[in-house]
Every structure is written in structure tokens, then in C-alpha cells.
Amino acid sequence: MRSRMHRRSFLKRAALTAGALSAARYLAFPNVLSAREPGDLLNCAVIGCGGRGETHLEQVIVNQKQRLVALVDPDEKQIAARKKWLANNYQIKTDNVLVFSDYRVMFDKIGGQIDAVFVAAPNHHHAAAAMMAMQAGKNVYCEKPLCRDIAQARELSRASLHYSKVATQMGNQGHCEEGYRRLCEFIWGGVIGNVTETHSWTDRANGGEGPRPPAKPVPAGMQWDTWIGPAPFRNFHHDLHPHEWHGWCDFGNGSLGNMGCHVLEGVFWALKVEHPSSVEMEFVRGGTDERFPLGSRVRWDIPARGAMPPLKAYWYEGLNPATTDHPGRSTHAAEGPARNLPPLVAELQAKYPDEDLDGKGVDSGTLYVGDKGIIFTGTYGGRMHILPREKMKSITQPPITLPRPNPNPFIDFVDACRAGRADTATPFEYGARLTEFVLLGNLAQYAGKERKVQWDGPNMKVTNFPELNQWITRAPRSGWLA
Q1: Which of 99, 180, 204, 260 is most buried by a 10 A CB count?
Q2: pTM of this prediction?
């Protein structure tokens, strides 16, 4: 069923959010928050029932005991599995929970009954679902990255400011936790001096190589056209659903999309990154015109920001270029020498053998290289410390200057919604800027090895390879917001 509320393109719609026209003109329900008192339970809808969708249900419905009114997923089996999981493990009745294969239909049918929307669908649906929620006056929590394309990030940021009474949160738990907040205080306090390099890595290898697999019959119970959504249509094939979509350019954002907003957040936040001047992929392993690499190294060149000097930020993902090991599709890379780690990790591990920078428990991390020392953080900012760790006992600790929200982003969001507040730890305005920084790494991957991409951030365009601008704004299929 095609919803009557989605006949204009994403960019035309987004332009309206900055103007005087009300979104109510395009919606089948009033553009107001539900009439409710602060402290009431939230009526919640979860879009995307596999993977992270289960986490959303556990965090919000099970742990915080909010009210589930709708589940949305184009795969009937995913909905059935989550309902059974809630009933068998937590004795939560789901008989009255409405189910939909298409969130457009959900908004049309029961939009007025919803207080908060949780988006855990694949990346190519993030912008459409989140924009529809804001236009409907609904609080919205969306998984990272906030969207698939840079133009979408800009539009979601503008929309979140326009719909200022709506609480928004990007699912980026590290922003709520202690590690990155203490990192900011250490770097802003000059503990390691001027930082001129960072090295971030993940063992994820969300990509592939070789041609697209042959078409297969659509599985029973799968609404395939709805799963495709705003993306270009293709026939169902192996290596897409339910998780492998990460590695395909039409649907995901590779290893950067999977882990970049977590691992690179300390770089973006603590070092006050604005618009990089250029980004370049220095090596690549695997990948095709429509698949992300199995391994790559990407460098962002960031100009001076106030008193902060120019910065080179490096990203290492998946497999190194020399290994012959293959990690399989959309998975963690092989362990040991197959991992694509910064050379600095081996140097520091040899110098400080008591550190654990490359062990099995360190799937991702970042090194911040200053002229007075080096700091390490784990995936979400955890284990933040100066190398070697003993130095933490002798340095002058910088003061605590940043607020400490609830370290659980779901609690932070639900508390804001129930109190009628729009302020959250990671509102879309911030999440969109972090997402854009991460997605610039995808632009370098689209460009190919050793082709430095010159970026005009204020005007949102590539200046030296204009063909890359097709990846910044991708038109949605008819009937969908991109």
C-alpha cells in the first residue's frame, strides 16, 4: 500500500521544514505531540525488529516498562520472533500490539496514538522513518549512523531544529558514557598538548568482493519491495538480509557505517572537528563499484580550529592488504596478523607490554597523539587513559566540566520524553554532524585508492571529482522520503 503522505521528494520536503508551511499539510494526522501528562508511560513503535530492534525492545519495553503499541518490519518472521521472545522470556503480552510491514502505513493508520518511535531498520531507511516521525510531532530515537547520505544528515539536522519540541536521539552510547567525556576534558585541558594525529581502527569487515549474487526467490513472509524502500530496486539475493546489507552501497555504509560513529566520536568531539578540507583512502582490500571494501585505510585532513592545530585523522578497518585470509561476509575480520591495525599499535605494545591495545578484547580503539603524550580509548570511549597507564597516577587531573547524563542512551531518551523535554545527550543536530564526518570516509572509498577528495563543507560538494557528488544526494524511489 502506498501512503498518500509521501509523494514529494526528500529534499523538497526538507526545504519546507525551513519555511513557513506546516508539515500538517502533508500528513494524515495532526503535527502535534500526543496529549499526555509528563510521567505517563510512552506509547512506543519499533521500526525494524531484527538485531538492534531486539535491543530497543529490551531496553525500552522490558527494562523501562514502556508501552509497545506497534512493531514494523517487512519480514513477518522477524516480527513473529520478537513477539515470541517478549512472551517467552519476559511474559509480555503482545496480542494488542499492531504489526505493519511498512512504517508509512503505520504513521497513516495510528500516528496519533504514538509518543515515541525507535528506528532500528537498515541504514537506507533511517532518514525516511526519522523525518516522518519528526513531521508527525513524534519523539524519535534512531540508530547510528543517522542516515545513509550526507545530504540526509544536513536535512535531518535542520528538521530537528525546526521541530524543536520533539526529542531526538541518535543511538551512540559512547556519547552518554564517561570515557569520551573525560577524554574531552583531558584534551581541552592540555594534558597531552597539541594533538596532530589520531589513529582509529575496527576489526569489522563489512564489505565484499566479486559480482552481485544471482537472484533468488523472495522468502515467504517477506515484503521485498518494502524492504528495498527508498533504495534502487533489485531482486532478492544472498548476502543482504538480515545483516549483510551493511556491505552494499545502496543500503549500508560499510564498516564505517557500522562502527565509525562509535570509534571516531572521540576524534570528532574532543578535537572539535568542523569541516575537513580533504579525505583520502590510502589503501583498499576488496570492494567493488557497489560493495564496500573488506579492508581500507582512510585519512581525513582537518584544518586548524581556533587554538587547535591541523589534524590528520586515520581510520583502519577490516583486513590488512597483505593477508590472504578471508573473513567471510559482513563480519569481524580474522584475528592476528590479518587485522588491519595502525603500525603505531605494534610500536606502543612493544614499548609498553603491560598494555592491551591489540588483544582479543580490543576489537576497536583510537590513539590520540599529542606533543606531550598519547591517550587510548576503546570502542565507546572506555578504558580512556594516557600511555602508559601508570602516568594516570602522576598527572594533574583536569576538572570535570561536562555534564554527565544517564550512561544508558535509552534511559536518557525516555526520561526526556516522559518529562516533556526535547534535550537529550545526542540530539539529531549533533548526531547529524558526527554522521557527516563519518560518511566523508565513504566518499573516499567511492573515489578509490590514492585519490584525495577535496571537500567544500559549507557548500556540501566535492570540488575536484564532481562525479562523486552523486553519492552526496541520492534521489529516493517514488513514494519514499530518502
Answers
A1: 260
A2: 0.91
